[in-house]
Amino acid sequence: MGTLDEHWCSVCRKKLDKQEDVYLEFEVVAAKKKKKFPISLKKKKLKGNICSECVEKNPELKKSVEIMIKAGNPNFTPAIICMNRDTCADFKSPEKKQGIDCSHICVIGDNLYCNRSHVGSLKIPREKAEVQREEARVMKSMLEKYIKDPKIKELLNTVLLEKETLQTIYVPPSVVVEDEKTST
């Protein structure tokens, strides 16, 4: 016995092909508590597919889909503000506003500081995997700069490649953030 894997639009009843058609799979959860779904579905049909044409035809549904898509991933918009900007004689507004209010704010490693030698800094957490990759890039570039023998360079590249692929298989940066206790 084979398996039947057919899909169709719950609104217009058009047959959908997984490889060719663009469609949205949906499931309405806790329908009693929520507002009426923006398309007409029978009470029992709280799960199904909607083709892209039906989404485009219904402005309320299109708006709902756009809200759902954006809901999980808002844009990251940080702002770095010097709390002493009103009293600081060295305060200088940057030419391009990019979320930093003073052009003297700088970063070294994971420390945010004022490059006008004002006392104080802010330690920003860094992801372990990214710190390891940065350290490996710096070490490799330094060794390439100072090692002149091509045979040793080739051996070095092989060793670094094996170490990188075997011991530290890619870990996405968002998985682990370096903790102050473990970074020492």
Q: Total helix count?
A: 4
SS-based class: alpha+beta
The quaternary structure here is single chain
Strand percentage lies at 5-15%
Largest beta-sheet characterization: 3 strands, antiparallel
Counted beta strands = 7
Q: Helices and strands, in N-to-C order?
A: EEEEHHEEEHH
Mean pLDDT comes to 76
The radius of gyration over CA amounts to 27 Å
Shape: flat
The strand order across the widest sheet is 5-6-7
Low-confidence stretches: none
Q: Kindly report how far apart the N and C termini lie.
A: 60 Å
The tally of structural domains comes to 3
Describe it.
The protein starts with 6 loop residues before the first strand and ends in a 17-residue tail after the last helix. It is of the alpha+beta class and 184 residues long. The protein folds into 3 domains: 7-71, no CATH class; 83-124, no CATH class; 126-184, no CATH class. The chain is flat and about 65 Å long. The strands form 3 sheets. It has a 3-stranded antiparallel beta sheet, with no helix packed on it. It has a two-stranded antiparallel sheet with strand order 1-2. A two-stranded antiparallel sheet has the order 3-4. It has helices at residues 52-57, 59-71, 128-146, 150-167; strands at residues 7-8, 15-16, 23-27, 47-51, 105-108, 111-114, 121-123.
